[in-house]
Amino acid sequence: MSLNRRQRFVHGNLAWMLATAFALALLDALTLELFFVVSLVGFLVTIELVTPVAVTPHWRRRLRWLVALGLLVFGYIAVRRILAILPPGVI
Membrane spanning segments where (predicted)? Predict the structure, then answer.
């Protein structure tokens, strides 16, 4: 059962990332930052969709580190974007 959920997680995440890359390329908005942020959202949604109700499998517990790393990178991207928007001399 756990292998089936793990495979669904990997397939769902891969499908989301491919669809994201394709959609961003069609919209001519494909940048590494935007791809990362949309892929992170898909990653978090996929985690929630395959999470069992009663127990947490061992492979699912290890995803916490990836989520934490992804949120740190997202924070870095957000701060960089905010600093780019602010006029010079504000900070």
Answer: 12-30, 36-56, 63-83
User: Using one digit for the tens of pLDDT, what is the confidence trace for 48-68?
Assistant: 888 777 777 777 778 889 999
Q: Can you give the residue ranges of every domain in the chain?
A: 2-85
CA distance 48 to 40: 13
Q: What is the DSSP letter of 53?
A: S
Whole-model pTM: value is 0.83
Percent residues over pLDDT 70 in the chain: 97
CA distance 6 to 63: 11
Q: What is the DSSP track for the chain? A: -HHHHHHHHHHHHHHHHHHHHHHHHHTT---HHHHHHHHHHHHHHHHHHH--SS---HHHHTHHHHHHHHHHHHHHHHHHHHHHHSPTT--
